[in-house]
């Protein structure tokens, strides 16, 4: 049986998302598919997996093969940049895809560059509103929407910065 | 100008083991297994950490892609001249550290 759950996680909070998915799996609900904040779980009380999420923009064949060789099953992805992997919880191998602070930090740094890039293009795309400002009501709506997006992005940069500092050596 | 091997030192424990495991041509998982073996289980590397490190080392031309015809799903790696030189330099550096301190360390009380 497939169970669908709607849940919002921001990119920088993948560690919380991983914990949640692993927790769900302990209860017998195992993530199989992700589509736009919708998590599709497969029910099996006999199983339990540990979930890990990797941020990687160019997931090549050899990248996926390496994870598979190391015992990580590629379950699904979000926008082809967030990759969901899992391993059976009973497996005695290491349950983390990142084994040192440096590489965890690199993962967040890649994410930061990606979001900065998107944020930059978002700002440029919205310049048109200001340039062609005539004051009708729908412009206020647009600006309101923009403010929400800007706040979300600033919050994500704040979290990413905190995560990067947390994993800074020394 | 080509980068000097000395400019890469000191290596992290992970990088040192990756380069050491490439004394033979290996793919990613082969490197992981070899590292676990040669470090006597002391170092186990996650695939994310290894993949990131390999990408960086390849960019710095410390390692390079090796052509292995029987397997087109995995990427194989080998040391470049620079990589070999870095490994040798780091070994000499570590060895002299241990040699220079092996007598003196006894004077340092626990």
TrEMBL record, chain A:
Keyword Membrane annotated: yes
A Pfam family per the record: DUF2812
Transmembrane segments: 112-134, 140-160
InterPro entries, sorted: DUF2812 (IPR021359)
UniProt keywords, alphabetically: Membrane, Transmembrane, Transmembrane helix
Name of the protein in question: DUF2812 domain-containing protein
From TrEMBL, chain B:
Lineage: superkingdom: Bacteria
Pfam families: PadR (PF03551)
Gene3D superfamilies assigned: Winged helix-like DNA-binding domain superfamily/Winged helix DNA-binding domain
Organism: Gracilibacillus oryzae
Residue stretches making up the Transcription regulator PadR N-terminal domain: 24-88
UniProt protein name: Helix-turn-helix transcriptional regulator
InterPro entries xref list: Metal_resp_DNA-bind_regulator, Tscrpt_reg_PadR_N, WH-like_DNA-bd_sf, WH_DNA-bd_sf
